[in-house]
Amino acid sequence: MSDRPALSATPRTRLRRMREKGRTQHSDLLAVLRGGLVAHLGVVVDGCPMVVPTVYGHDDDNVYFHGSVASRSLTARSEVCLTVTLFDGLVLARSVFEHGINYRSAMIYGVPRAVTGRDEKLHGLRILTEHVAPGQWDYARPPSRKELAATALLALSLAEASVKIRTGPPDDGDSPDAALGLWAGELPVAPRWERPVPDPALPDAAVPVPQHIAGLAGRRLDRG
Amino acid sequence: MSDRPALSATPRTRLRRMREKGRTQHSDLLAVLRGGLVAHLGVVVDGCPMVVPTVYGHDDDNVYFHGSVASRSLTARSEVCLTVTLFDGLVLARSVFEHGINYRSAMIYGVPRAVTGRDEKLHGLRILTEHVAPGQWDYARPPSRKELAATALLALSLAEASVKIRTGPPDDGDSPDAALGLWAGELPVAPRWERPVPDPALPDAAVPVPQHIAGLAGRRLDRG
């Protein structure tokens, strides 16, 4: 990973605000993608933006997601922006003005490619499934030929992307506001898996929760 | 709330897929907005979509957010799509094909309006701050005249919006796959506040964590 070139600085990935928060390494991008599960996909429909949530998976070169989420617009080749945001907590400052959030965010730009070959489609679906629930690809029934044909899978190159990260306490600790005597700090937030809920349609003879699912309970989702 | 008209069905809010997941009441929209904290704002820049995360607040008629997040594009009046997604968990089916997620999602379309009047700006900022951290508006130092002037606040009407919600177990409990003997169900996820982390710049004479912050630890973020 360390041999990869740094993230490109194109007109749309160059940060114009809060430059200090930008990260420039491909490994920074992968770290954000590893930590998330739902992306927000932006497309342009009739000149207007549309933003839809979608699950995704990724390898070192591409992010994969279901084409159906954007079926209204992605029939033609069109530019997208896929954004993954990990919300890490509130930044509680002494003044309302200095309040903010801690977060890790990645924005990926490009024209997604429809994955059509059987092998790459299986590769992409496996990556997507394993990203969302590691162990599930080998546990669940794999896609049939018909299901595979019915699945629209898109691949978006990671070549053009930007990463922004904010961590740490508020910035007004050495401002005149520090004398106000107010508490300031961070209120972290963590998404955690809870206990699995069996499908009521399961037979009475209990089917055990597979270990790769049961073992997630209580763990942070953003393990990246 | 029950007297409000149902959500409009415009060409872009009418659901074309998964119609059964659509909700049509204004109260459904408000419930999703109450539960979230970070929205994803989509804008069009030079014909390409850009999606940026932003904190928001809302009342019954508008969602408020900082204009600076979209400074690159929102200098002119332009259409946006603001999407709030609450990710509730994985839907683990017997087949890979039937996997999905449970979620609550709202998409709001329109041209945001710059809030310029002092009173409405204070109203919007209060709503935003109190949405993010209830109690913080009265605790922290309020915006000075200069800070208020430096804050770009946008209001987006809730008039054109769509809401989608998926809950419950997977849909393959009565398919032939049910005979596979595999476990299936939901793996819920919950974002929870953790313990507050004091700013290291606080004086040694401990400043107590205010109760409205300390009381959040362990509670779900999406209390809506």
What does this structure look like?
Chains A, B: Residues 1-22 are annotated as: Disordered. 2 copies of one chain form a homodimer. With 224 residues, chain A is of the alpha+beta class. The first copy, chain A, has helices at residues 26-35, 118-132, 136-139, 145-150, 211-214, and strands at residues 22-23, 38-45, 48-58, 62-66, 80-92, 100-110, 113-115, 153-157, 161-166, 185-193, 197-198. Chain A folds into 2 domains: 19-89 and 101-167, Electron Transport, Fmn-binding Protein, Chain A (Pnp Oxidase, Chain A), CATH 2.30.110.10; 190-224, no CATH class. In chain A, strands 1, 2, 3, 4, 5, 6, 7, 8, 9 and 10 form a 10-stranded antiparallel beta sheet that branches. Chain A is globular. The two termini of chain A are 15 Å apart. At the A-B interface, β2, β3, β5, β6 and α2 of A face β2, β3, β5, β6 and α2 of B.
Which regions of chain A are unreliable across 5 or more consecutive residues at pLDDT < 50?
A: none
Structural class of chain A: alpha+beta
Annotated CATH homologous superfamily of the largest domain in chain A:
Electron Transport, Fmn-binding Protein, Chain A
Topology, number of strands of chain A: 11
Give the total of domains of chain A. Answer: 2
Tell me the series of helices and strands of chain A, N- to C-terminal: EHEEEEEEHHHEEEEH
Specify Rg of chain A, calculated over alpha carbons.
Answer: 21 Å
CATH class of the largest domain in chain A: Mainly Beta
Distance N to C terminus of chain A: 15 Å
Q: Estimate the global geometry of chain A from the Cα principal axes.
A: globular
For the sheet with most strands of chain A, the description reads: 10 strands, antiparallel
Helix content of chain A: 10-25%
* Count of individual helical segments of chain A: 5
Tell me the strand percentage band of chain A: 25-35%
CATH architecture level-2 label of the largest domain in chain A: Roll
Q: Biggest interface, which chains?
A: A-B, 94 and 93 residues
Please tell me the overall pLDDT of chain A. Answer: 89
Which oligomeric form is depicted? homodimer
Looking at the structure, the CATH topology of the largest domain in chain A is Pnp Oxidase, Chain A
